[in-house]
Amino acid sequence: MAGPRKKGAGRRCAIVAAAALAVLLAAAGAMADGLPPGLVSDAPIWTEKPVRIDRKKQTYERIAVERRIMPARIRITPRVAVFDSSSFREGGHLYVLTGAVAVDPRRLCRGAGGRIAACGQQARLYLKRLITNRTLACAEDYRTGALSFVTCSLQDRDIAETLVGKGAAWAATAALRAKQDEAMRRGDGIWTDTECRAAGRCPPERRRRALR
């Protein structure tokens, strides 16, 4: 009877030793891969239930995700309402070009010979002719209610840049300042005004009216 017991005990010891060896090998492999020692499991690392993370104790790496906003395509119909040289309403929604500061539609410009031009209305009509019956590619910069501030392009050309380059708007960003300087040197649009050109900027129209 002693013989069979010794054989059974020896077989159990061999099984236990093999299991222990497997655990050690798994731990060694995990440590070699830079992982904490422990049993290797086939269980999924994701969970379908919310898990609270203690940021003081769990230092998981955060992977930044770039938010990509695809440009929206806006079809501008002949019914578009253009309020000035940087804002318009289409389909019940109001849009403002982020990169352009509009010219007051009531602004008058005085040239060197004393000639007066309705440059504010000219700037507004320039934007209307530019976008009517065209499809714009626009990215929304931010929104408040039914008002969207957008960066729009037409045939891969930034509309705000076009307006500033034609003297139909002022630059709202430093990136467009060079375009504004070029329009001012040429005397285009609002820069036909000698006072604006001499000062490098235009005084508010209300102050100019008060000085008349």
From TrEMBL:
InterPro entries: SNase_OB-fold_sf, TAT_signal. Residues 1-32 form the signal peptide. The keyword Endoplasmic reticulum does not apply. The keyword Signal applies. It comes from the Bacteria. Gene3D superfamilies: 2.40.50.90. Keywords: Signal. This is Endonuclease YncB, thermonuclease family.
